Amino acid sequence: MHCALYDAGRCRSCQWLETPYTQQLSQKQAHLQQLMASLPVANWLEPVISPPEKFRNKAKMVVSGSVERPLLGMLHRDGTPVDLCDCPLYPDSFTDVFAALRPFIARAGLTPYNVARRRGELKFILLTESRYSGELMLRFVLRSTTKLAQLKAALPELQRTLPQLAAISANIQPVPMAILEGDEEIPLTDNQALAEQLNDVPLWIRPQSFFQTNPEVAASLYATARRWVAELGVNSMWDLFCGVGGFGLHCATPDMQLTGIEISKEAIACAKRSAELMGLTRVNFAALDSTAFATGEGSVPELVLVNPPRRGIGAELCDYLTRMAPLWILYSSCNAVTMATDLARLSDYRIVQVQLFDMFPHTAHYEVLTLLQRKA
Questions:
Q1: Residue 179 has pLDDT above 90, yes or no
Q2: CB atoms < 10 A from the CB of 348, how many?
Q3: pLDDT tens-digit map of 108-166
């Protein structure tokens, strides 16, 4: 992949860009196998590759510059702004959106936030695309509600220019720190859910719910989990840290008892909507802390799927899973370092198979799916 920003030294987010893609995969696989060197693995599967460019469905753009000439991109540590509108990781469809947003910001009088001076209102633009419908979700992250009326008044023209904007909202983030969003979300359109579909599963993205940024590899990840679970023939399953329900909804059958747990109410609302559309009646999604739920629940499912954040599931949940002793554990990880630590704690389980999914080309990051079986 060629990137003019990288060549000019303006952006080095893709640290491995000069490394051939096949070598990137080899290095990631070697890193994963090194982390798990002390953990016997029965079957290593080939890594799942990603398109090298235009794979992202989401842009998180820092807004800087002036209200007359806003700049969308990022800030270096020294405060120097970098325009990332031409980043080759974004789909072509983002080009027209970025071009329309710059004059819109000026017309709406949304003064870009200045980090050093702690002045201004517009901090970030968050853009998400549905690869299923081509529709977009647009979020304005503001320091306060001061410019909210101006934003609302200017929106109709933007919506005429970009009819693909299906959901628009304003997020209020008043803290003068590098925090992407705040707790308060103000809807600016009646619709606040972006319809997506991976494989044959309808999914929904709401403003404050997490969704994978590489939908093609995410679809492979979910399809693989579905295949592995189907081969086990289980009838009861927990999906912990379930997000919008991607894993559980792929694995569920009409006869399976599925419980999905996620702390985000927004994500759970999406999961429930998908389950209803799929006609799944033995599914229960709830907005709870996954560890607190699991360690307080008395029943034991045949399979527990965990998809934790980068910190992993931790000692408390590992200890409880060991005592609870489900037949199978399916562990999806975005941080192989913490996953390896967790797997070492789960010594009552053998590792049946492991597969790497290259969700983040040109970086050292990757995702892993690991199937564990309780030892006899």
A1: no
A2: 12
A3: 999 999 988 899 999 999 999 999 999 999 999 999 999 999 999 999 999 999 999 99
Q: Is 55 annotated as a binding residue?
A: no
Residues 13/16/22/23 CA torsion (nearest 10 deg): -160
Q: What is the pLDDT of residue 76?
A: 85
Q: For residues 53 and 334, what is the distance between their CA atoms, to the nearest angstrom?
A: 20
3 is in an annotated binding site: yes
Give the pLDDT score at 297: 67
Per-residue pLDDT averaged across 340-348, rounded?
A: 97
- The answer to whether 270 is a known ligand-binding residue is no
Number of Cβ atoms within 10 Å of the Cβ of 184: 13
pLDDT tens across 30-50, in order?
A: 999 999 999 999 999 999 999
Q: Is 318 annotated as a binding residue?
A: no
Where in the sequence numbering do the catalytic residues fall? 334
- Hey, what domains does the chain have and what are their CATH numbers? 4-52+214-374 (3.40.50.150), 58-192 (2.40.50.1070)
| Identity of the amino acid at 341 | T
> What's the whole-model pTM score?
0.94
Q: Which helix (H) or strand (E) holds 332?
A: strand 328-333
87 is in an annotated binding site: yes
* DSSP assignment of 192-242: --EEEEETTEEEEE-TTS---S-HHHHHHHHHHHHHHHHHHT-SEEEEET-
CB burial of 190-225 (b: ≥16 within 10 Å; e: otherwise) equals eebbbbbbbeebbbbbbbbbbbbbbbbbbbbbbbbb
212 is in an annotated binding site: yes
84 contact partners, CB below 8 Å, separation of at least 6: 5, 11, 59, 61, 72, 73, 74
